[in-house]
Sequence to fold (90 residues):
Amino acid sequence: MTPTAGPEFEALAADLGRRIVDAGLRGLVLRFGDETRIVGVADRMPPAATLEAPLDELHAVLGGERGAEELRALRWIGNPEPYIPLLSSA
Fold:
């Protein structure tokens, strides 16, 4: 059974979405198991990158518990660099 995102995860994802929009970036797809969240979509522009990880890892990422190099080591589709400063703890 695939873990399901709870309210805390959804709140962290929504906060990241606001920061992505405020930074003028295109959206980011968060993919875990069979679930997908698209955060930071503004003006109907398609997301620019996807981050795939287990739910617990994404929760740690959204909670600011990963440094820049740890973030770069995750599975990204597209360029992660614009998002690293928004997610990095260091």
User: Anything to note?
Assistant: The mean pLDDT is 91.
